[in-house]
Amino acid sequence: MVKIPFLVGAFLLLLLQGCSATPEQQQLKNIEQYFFDEHFEAVDNLPPADTLLSLPNTAKKEIVQQFRHDTVLSSNRILPHEWLANYIDAENGGFEYQDNVTRTAAQTYGDRAGNCMSLVLLTAAIAREVGVDVEFQDIEVPPVWDKQGNFYLINGHVNLRLLPRSSTDTVFITKKAIQVDFMPERAVRAYRKIKVDKDTVLAMYYNNVAAESLVIGEYDKAYALLKLGIKQKANYVPALNTLAVLYRYKGLDDQAELLYKLALDMSADNMNALYNYAILLGSQDRLDEWAEVHKVLELERINNPYYYFDMAQQAYFDREYQDALLWYKRAVDKADYRHEFYFGLSRAYWATGDERRAKKNMQKALSLTRDDDNKVRYQAKLNAMKTH
């Protein structure tokens, strides 16, 4: 039996897609033809694009006062972009990195926390207030995989550079840019950086929040957000893919296929769109077409840690525990940050009588999970192991 992967939802990542993007050269005209409003209810109170980088007046006042205190009113000879890098404090957590939901600049300022997309928006908003130019960068890091419900989520990464702004009455001894990154554990210097424009970053934001809505079943909200994002950057392929996934969930297969083909025309090697198109073809028993797509996917599937995890789960429930151990270990090799992989390893080790490794991996699962229910579950199982 051939296993067809579940839907792949790409974030910003970056942002949640987190925030991965590729520079698309092809321009897309008449994007309205790919929207089908009649299948969705209108949603109000969504943030317009021109507000994503806005801050409330109280925040602007606080920032400018702090900036003046630290620069103009002090003896410190610090350039505005240097001040901003220190103020954001990416290394030490002046604003806390939290890889959960995507926020606007104003929300991030109020919460003092956000994921990389949220913090990038906030930094750009503050930069505007203190006269600093910014460059947005998509970082081609290895994809970080997550799974929520029936969705695989692939998180990319985005950061930005702060640039001193030239003026007629200022001469800089140095004009060195400062890279600001909110995930210091990643050695981003080792990866290729792609400069992206503000419209792409805003499209990333909408794709992120749309994917978050899609995962929890808020289809009308996801649709409205994707429209905003695609209108901002019509050739942003991850958003086209997410909209196609949404159409599938609404039973609009023909509309979804149009978008998958459009996305692949614009970016033929986009594996997310190709995975999802394969699912559509398989569901319609178009097996010859599916087989052609699958030839390409088979080479890429080995990079998906959940492929190995699913194989491990099947082996475990078939009581083939040694095989399960092998597959779980391969999943961990691909993504050593996923708590469920270590939980699976723990169960398989326990089933084979290796109590020491079972406890060790249960402890690792407990240390990695952020979900309170999982913490209670793992702690209870660890306690039971220790009293066995």
Name of the CATH class of the largest domain: Mainly Alpha
Q: In the CATH hierarchy, what is the superfamily of the largest domain?
A: Tetratricopeptide repeat domain
Strand residue percentage = 5-15%
Would you give the CATH topology of the largest domain?
Serine Threonine Protein Phosphatase 5, Tetratricopeptide repeat
Count of DSSP helices?
15
Radius of gyration: 23 Å
Overall number of structural domains: 2
In helices, the fraction of residues equals 40-55%
Q: What is the H/E string?
A: EEHHEHEHEEEEHHHHHHHHHHH
Q: Kindly state the mean pLDDT as a whole number?
A: 83
Residue ranges: pLDDT <50 for 5 or more in a row? 1-25, 168-174
The assigned CATH architecture of the largest domain is Alpha Horseshoe
Structural class, by secondary structure, is alpha/beta
Number of strands: 8
How far is the first residue's CA from the last residue's CA?
39 Å
Question: Given the C-alpha coordinates, what overall shape results?
Answer: globular
- Biggest pleated-sheet summary: 5 strands, mixed
What does this 3D model show about the protein?
The protein is built from 15 helices and eight strands. Helix 5 (198-215) runs antiparallel to helix 6. The chain has helices at 57-70, 80-88, 105-111, 116-130, 198-215, 219-232, 237-249, 253-266, 271-283, 287-301, 305-317, 321-334, 339-351, 355-368, 372-386; strands at 7-10, 12-19, 96-97, 113-114, 132-148, 151-164, 178-180, 193-196. The chain has 388 residues and is an alpha/beta fold. The chain is globular, with a radius of gyration of 23 Å. Strands 1, 5, 6, 7 and 8 form a five-stranded mixed sheet that branches.
